[in-house]
Amino acid sequence: MSTHYVAVVEKDADSAFGVWFPDVDGCFSAGDTLDEAVVNAGTALRQHAEALQSAGKDVPNARDVEAVLHDKDVKAAVKTGALLFAVPLLADAGRTVRINISLDKALVDQIDEAAEARGLTRSAFIAQAAREKIMG
Which of 12, 36, 81, 100 is the 20 to 30 Å CA partner of 124? Predict the structure, then answer.
């Protein structure tokens, strides 16, 4: 599933960037840089969606940017310099799929080393790297 949610990013006085989602109550994130805030927003959205689903709750529907711009809080944030950006919800489908890929042996060795250092399997490491790359 890949649905995009509108995120609002605001620069705090202490130079950090805060992120919130008008369509997903209680989902917040931050980062020291704008790039970090964007990556962290994707992770926060995914984890929040997983927590909702684990609790038997539905993930709210994403609205388009035009609809979000009508929200009073969003209008106020934009007037004070906030930026809007789309964050894909890269939620798991709940099942794994076996694939066959070809990679250089040296790259596979580096992947295995990095995965082991992080306590991940090769598959989990590649999936995490893919999510990070997709988020930008």
Answer: 36
**Count H helices, E strands: the chain?**
5, 4
pLDDT greater at residue 120 or residue 44: 44
Sheet with strand 17-20: strands edge to edge: 28-31, 17-20, 2-11, 83-90
Q: In CATH, what number does 96-136 get?
A: 1.10.1220
DSSP state of 98: -
Instruction: Give SS3 for 30.
Output: strand
CATH 3.30.160.250 boundaries in the chain: 1-95
Convert the pLDDT of each residue in 12-21 to its tens digit: 777 789 999 9
